Amino acid sequence: MSQEAIVAAAVGLVDEHGPDALTMRAVAERLGCGVMSLYRHVPDRETLLDLALDAMTAELPATPPTGDWRADATALARDVRSGLLKRPHLTVLLTSRGDRRSGGLKDLDRALGIFRSAGFAERDAVFANHVLGNYVAGAALWEAVGLGGSTGADRQARRAAGAAAVQALPPDLYPNVSWAGAQVFAGDLDGRFDFGLEVILDGFERRLHATATDS
């Protein structure tokens, strides 16, 4: 029995069933020990959730920086999205508890450094990180839940059903959805994510140029 083993069991529970499934009793059952033995290494459930978050965020990929702020921001967004897609429950856990411990601070520091090096003022760098973080978290959550299906076959079936339903809508009631048609569900998820990311970074770049002109 060690804190590392307890945290690993906690991470497994969160990965499989979500944060609500993480209880001291559930961890003890997974480890085959008594609940009281856990308290020698972890004082309570809240601390264990924090430790699990630290362990999960420590495994997020980190592409080495290039010095080009757009390339580095793109890599950061893709890295975090990749990690969140592997662990769908991490999105909620990171959003709800990211201010409690070091979980997420590594990527926050990375993002702030990217935007400050690009020339953003301190406030704008913080806000740019907020915009980018919201986009990545929202996209990852939508991909994991909104488009559904834990396998490629399930996902494709839902997309096909959605496209068929859209195309069957009466155009007099939904004129704009009608012209969009199958495009509502067309394209791959990477392409959709990269389109949105490029639009956001284009906006950041225009703001940088406008700020430089004003000063």
Annotation keywords:
single chain; 215 residues; mainly alpha; 2 domains; Arc Repressor Mutant, subunit A
Q: Would you tell me which CATH topology of the largest domain applies?
A: Tetracycline Repressor, domain 2
Largest beta sheet, briefly? none
Give me the oligomer status. Answer: single chain
Q: Give the averaged pLDDT, no decimals.
A: 88
CATH superfamily of the largest domain: Tetracycline Repressor, domain 2
Tally of strands: 0
What is the N-to-C succession of helices and strands?
HHHHHHHHHHH
Radius of gyration: 21 Å
Q: Which percent bin holds the helix content? A: over 70%
Structurally, the number of domains stands at 2
Which stretches are low in confidence, meaning pLDDT under 50 for 5 or more residues running?
A: none
Query: Distance between the terminal alpha carbons, to the nearest Å?
Result: 60 Å
Counted by DSSP, the helix tally is 11
What would CATH call the architecture of the largest domain?
Orthogonal Bundle
Give the CATH level 1 class of the largest domain: Mainly Alpha
Strand-pairing-aware structural class: mainly alpha
Shape: flat
What fraction strand? Answer: under 5%
General description of the model:
With 215 residues, the chain is mainly alpha-helical. The chain has 2 domains: 3-58, Arc Repressor Mutant, subunit A (Orthogonal Bundle); 69-146 and 185-214, Tetracycline Repressor, domain 2. 73% of the residues lie in helices and 0% in strands. It is built from 11 helices and no strands. It has helices spanning 3-17, 24-31, 35-38, 45-58, 69-86, 88-97, 105-118, 122-146, 152-167, 175-180, 189-214. Helix 7 packs across helix 8. The radius of gyration is 21 Å and the shape is flat.
